[in-house]
Amino acid sequence: MTVAPYRVHKLIQDLMRDPAAAAAFAQDPEGAFHAFGLAEPEKALLRDGSPSALHALGVHPNLQMKYARLRAKLPAPGASGGGPLAAYLDRLTET
Amino acid sequence: MGQIVGGFATSHVLFPPAGVEEQAERVLQGMLDLRSRVAALEPDVVVLAGSDHLNNFSLAMQVTLAVGVADTFTTLGDGGAPSVTFQGHRAFAEGFVRHANRHDFDLVQLEEVRPDHGMAIPRLVIDPANRVPVVPLYINSNMPVPPSPGRCYRLGGVVKAYVEAERPAGERVVVVGTGGLSHWLCLPEQGKVATEFDEDFIGRMIEGRSEELAALSAEHIEAASGNGGLELTAWLFMAGAVPKARGEKLYYEPVPEWISGMGGVSLLPA
Q1: Is the omega angle on the peptide bond into residue B187 within 30 degrees of 0, that is, cis?
Q2: CA of B187: how far to CAs of A59, A60, A62, A65, B142, in Å?
Q3: Using CB atoms within 10 A as the burial measure, which of A49, B7, B130, B134 is most buried?
Q4: Which residues of B are less than 8 Å from A87 in CB distance?
Q5: What is the CATH architecture assignment of B3-12+21-268?
Q6: Smallest CA–CA distance from A88 into chain B, residue
Q7: Where are the domains of chain B?
Q8: Which chain A residues contact residue B190 at CB under 8 A?
């Protein structure tokens, strides 16, 4: 299986840890691509962003999910809970 | 001497029930059954083994085996689990690291870690009131060189020896392995569930045959059960802490809609 160059993984890892950088990426992904020194074929696959494109680039599976969150401009994990657990949370938190 | 009074394992996710309502309810009931069984054992400490999903560790720093030694941990808040602070057990955790060091395991100590859903959801299942201190044990299953299933199983034996040799008389310890079963995450096979593999794995484990599973290679487990299936090394750590133990299947549901085989077991020490 293809494994993406580390610069691709570093871009995703750094963005997920830096809300300001993630916000900047949302406005100007090309700037981030340039800053991390990505090659044009890598940029093209990240612009595509589809599961097949990310798989072709060899992005780590967990980082594919985080990249999708970055592109969707979803908030970082927070304190509210719910989401996938919403239907169960009352029984899971019952003491 | 202390005592390992029980071993458990469970999947560490839940997804919305839409379309799979009956299966979702059976999974939840299985998890709540696990909760009741852990509570009945009245543990003084829980060792919770599982993986990090590139939230604390990443390809920048690839940590193979690590123990949370802090007094408290605040969960990340991903996967739908509320961000909460729960109590660790510094004396137990640091003592375990030192004991392991004398028995061929050099474990990384973690003062700062935000347990993600892989730990947070099982902890919520086990102890929603945060009554029992939890020692998180991280087993890498997501980055290129994971520890072998056999090594994880042997590390379970090390925690058993530690509890029996160094912990206070009467201390009751429960070990819980989290993750699995088969799933292929962000791969072309995503949505496939290896039901036969999952049921065989559970079957052998509850028949007291976990040593056979520990003899499998990581490559074999990954090929048979997907990149997510490698989380089963945490189950094998648990099984190593209760060697030869037999037990019960608490639940198993193949749920392609959740891209995962969902399961849990209970083992009582032989």
Answers
A1: no
A2: 10, 10, 11, 11, 13
A3: B7
A4: 16-17, 24
A5: 3-Layer(aba) Sandwich (3.40)
A6: B28
A7: 3-12+21-268
A8: 51
Are B126 and B38 in contact by the 8 Å Cβ rule? The answer is yes
Q: How far apart are CA B51 and CA B31, in angstroms?
A: 19
For residue B75, the chain A residue with the least C-alpha distance is A79
Cβ-based contacts of B128 with chain A (< 8 Å): 92-95
Quick check: A88 and B28 CB within 8 A?
Answer: yes
Query: pLDDT, tens digit, for every residue of B213-248?
Result: 999 999 999 999 999 999 999 999 999 999 999 999
With an 8 Å Cβ cutoff, the interface of chain A facing chain B consists of: 6, 9-10, 13, 51, 54-55, 60-66, 77-89, 91-95
B141-162: pLDDT as tens digits: 999 999 999 999 999 999 999 9
Q: How many CA atoms lie within 13 A of B23 on its CB side?
A: 18
Domain ranges, residue A66: 6-72
ipTM: 0.91
